Amino acid sequence: MNAVTIRGDWVGRVIDGRFSLLEWLGGSGTSSTFVTELDGPGSRRAAIKLFSAPAQAEDRLSTWTATTSLSHVHLVRILHFGRAEVDGAPLVYVVTELAEEVLSQIIPERPLTAVEARQMLEPVLDALSYLHANGLVHGHLKPSNILVVENEVKLSADGAIASGKPALGFSSGDVHNAPEAATELVTPASDMWSLGVTVVESLTQQLPARDSAAETDPVVQASLPTPFNEIARECLRVNPARRCTLSDVRALLEGKSKPIPPQALPEPHSVSKIAEKTSRVQMPLIPLLVGFVLLVAIIIGLSLRSHKTQTVPLQTETIKQAPPAEPDPQTPAPPATTGSAKGDVLNRVMPEVSRQASNTIHGTVTVGVRVTVDPTGSVTNAEFASHGPSAYFARIAMESARNWKFKAPVQNGQAIASAWLLRYQFKRDGVDVTPVETAP
Q: Is 59 in the same domain as 125?
């Protein structure tokens, strides 16, 4: 049966008797995306994608069945899917969360900055790790599938397929698709190729140049900033076995070197020579290391003797002040003083992280919040010092910071306003917060 052409003028039709097509967002003839509205109280808009290729209908339904059960903070949720008919022609559809912004809409206007690229890349890596751990390959990673939903960077999941199966809707003319996807089964390495193309495109507004006939690796623009230049080069290997992994990309983002693959290691005799040279070079460093350790010990000793900066125990929610000692009637009272004292933390409100969000953390997510505190110890204003890669963790850090209570610093015997920097570090096993008084 031939596929029906899905057109923008389908707006106004109702799919499967329940999903009205309110607005056309774009498409390619055999597939298109529209805005629809969900049943129930209130206005809940969603995206509905229609596919009219009969040969792939069962594969798509099977994929949606598998991915509906998945849940990840950086994956677009699948809300409904099923079969329908339009003008007597069969099609399948999937309803997902509606994006507020799409990366493919931003790139034509301007390239991402290095900071924005990192903020985009880290959630995408988390989502890909989750898919790969569940035996799935995204298969269509590109800017049009990197979305912002409720201030979270998310990756579409409706096109994911089981690893080791043919790609759905493969286009040989799309450079985002890995070269082997045309004739072979897709694997996680296929997603790494697409990731490399997306990195280049996001930062340069251009696709990497490649001569497909020559079977050579694409040329990565020299203007690409570090570490994205190396990430792109290591992803864009024609041979899938030579591409870097998600762990390699994370290491490069953290400033670490990509591990050398086994096939690239030198011969055994070369290794021994390298080790011999390395040991000769590193020997003079030992006295320096000993001196450094002694210096650190001295600094720590001095810090312990000084009470200018106080660290709040992380597990203590409320810090109670010790009651004043009873005066000795035989001892005359000291004269009144107009001294000064640093501020302190009286009550910390720790953010509550959902288990689902905690499971998405690889390493540490850091958020910095600056708070202004009035003389009564209450927070009057809060702003981000560093937002971090995730809107979710930034939001709960901000909510937490606004509810902290402080002991005001004292100058000339009077409580005064202060300012603090709260540095949140979210890890899979919990949250650490380091408070630092920055003013007065």
A: no
Positive or negative, the CA dihedral 125, 131, 132, 134 is positive
Low-confidence residues of the chain: pLDDT under 70: 1-2, 41-43, 168-173, 212, 214, 257-339, 356, 362, 389
Beta carbons of 385 and 434 less than 8 angstroms apart: no
| Ramachandran bin of 120, using left for φ above 0, alpha for ψ from -120 to 50, beta for the remaining angles | alpha
Residue 269 lies in a domain: no
Whether the Cβ atoms of residue 416 and residue 406 lie closer than 8 Å to each other: no
Maximum Cα interatomic distance, the chain, rounded to a whole number of Å:
105
Q: Which backbone phi and psi does 19 adopt, to 5 degrees?
A: -115, 105
Residue 313 CB: number of other CB atoms within 10 A? 9
Asked if 97 and 68 touch (Cβ cutoff 8 Å), the reply is no
pLDDT digits (tens, 9 = 90+) for 43-80: 689 999 999 877 778 888 988 988 888 889 999 999 99
pLDDT at residue number 336 = 46
Distant-in-sequence, close-in-space partners of 250: CB < 8 Å, separation ≥ 6: 125, 362, 363
246 Cβ contact partners less than 8 Å away, ≥ 6 residues apart: 125, 128, 129, 132, 188, 192
Q: What is the DSSP string of 79-111?
A: EEEEEEEETTEEEEEEEEEPPSEEHHHHTTT-P
Report if residue 131 sits inside a domain: yes
Peptide bond into 440 cis (omega under 30): yes
125: containing domain:
101-262
pLDDT attached to residue 5: 86
Confidence (pTM): 0.59
Q: Is residue 141 part of a domain?
A: yes
